[in-house]
Amino acid sequence: MTPGTMAGSQEVAGDAPGKKYVCNVCGWIYDPAIGDPDGIIPPGTPFAALPEDWVCPVCGAPRSEFSLLEN
């Protein structure tokens, strides 16, 4: 694994702020324009800037279970 990447994830350091990520477990989509109000993640927070211990608000999957959502 190289610096700035996560195992099982398509995340890359320097991620563009507007990229959305989908939970591979339940299908929930993290949209940085919305953030995660329940997880106290403000709008405008890119996926790469989420805390290491952040989990999917729907199913509790870790960040490593998210993949870049292709348009």
- Alpha-beta content class: little secondary structure
Total beta strands = 3
- Report the sheet-strand fraction: 5-15%
List segments where confidence is low: pLDDT < 50 over at least 5 consecutive residues: 1-14
The string of secondary-structure elements, in order, is EEE
Summarize the structure.
The protein is mostly loops. The chain has strands at residues 21-23, 29-30, 66-68. It has no helices and three strands.
Describe the structure.
By secondary structure, this protein is mostly loops. The protein contains no helices and three strands. The chain has a three-stranded antiparallel sheet with strand order 2-1-3, with no helix packed on it. Strand 1 (21-23) and strand 2 form a beta hairpin. The protein is globular, with a radius of gyration of 11 Å. The termini are far apart. The model is unreliable at 1-14 (pLDDT under 50).
Topology:
Blueprint: E1 21-23, E2 29-30, E3 66-68
Antiparallel strand pairs: 1-2, 1-3
Which descriptors apply to this entry?
single chain; 71 residues; little secondary structure; three-stranded antiparallel beta sheet; disordered N terminus
